Amino acid sequence: MRIATYNVNGITARLPVLLHWLEETAPDVACLQELKAPQEKFPEQAILEAGYQAIWHGQKSWNGVAILSKHGKPEEVRRTLPGDEEDTHSRYIEAMINGIRIGCLYLPNGNPAPGPKFDYKLQWFERLIKHARELLSSGIPTVLTGDYNVIPTEQDAYKPERWVEDALFRPESRATFKKLIDQGWIDAIRTLHPDETIYTYWDYFRNAYGRNAGIRIDHFLLSPQLMPRLQAGGVDRQVRGWEKTSDHAPVWIELEGH
């Protein structure tokens, strides 16, 4: 079972890229972030014609998350992160697919930091940690994937010293990510490739992709039950080089069995 995550950076503008990638790689499940489209503007028909059924949580101009499945319509569990009824951002959606619970998330960027946006990032992160703890205690095999907007370690950045003041790499962000991992989650990509240089995002400026000046911020966290099923994982790096593409590349894992 191949599960992928992809920050599309605007599903309307990137639809040809998304459809090309789906056709080329055919993941069983695809989690999308940054749809940047209201609920009614999601291209459901085009996704259906590509062989996928979907659930999504849209928002005009910003955010937005979706889960696509080749195995029937995802069975939606929730479409907001608990803990703040005032939070209107479309950043989380959760579904059951083939006995696996899949949470698709788009964690706040948090810049400029310090400031209100960084405070919101850390508050959202703490809500995620609380929910993730409940997911683990349920005993249901779970995948938490998406754009975490966190560079976990210096190994995950081309020039970490340039990111020191950025919300993605500030000590508070990294410590909170570690707090989440320490609940018992497995960072699938780093577990599979402990020593490799792996990036998932390259800025549009200064030929970052051409120089491989990237960062790793799109992550797969697996509950312990799934670790024995983890077969492979990687980044579809070539997609970042396509015309009119997102600044992120898709990330994927393969789990044994359907």
UniProtKB/TrEMBL annotation:
It comes from Flavisolibacter tropicus. Mg(2+) binds at residues 7, 34, 147, 149, 247-248. Keywords: Hydrolase, Magnesium, Manganese, Metal-binding. The active site is at 106, 147 (proton donor/acceptor), 248 (proton acceptor). One of its GO terms (biological process) is DNA repair. This is Exodeoxyribonuclease III. The record marks 218 as: Important for catalytic activity. The record marks 149 as: Transition state stabilizer. Residues 4-248 form the Endonuclease/exonuclease/phosphatase domain. Its cofactor is Mn(2+); Mg(2+). Pfam families: Exo_endo_phos (PF03372). NCBIfam families: exoDNase_III (TIGR00195), xth (TIGR00633). InterPro entries: AP_endonuc_1, AP_endonuclease_F1_CS, Endo/exonu/phosph_ase_sf, Endo/exonuclease/phosphatase, ExoIII-like. The record marks 248 as: Interaction with DNA substrate.
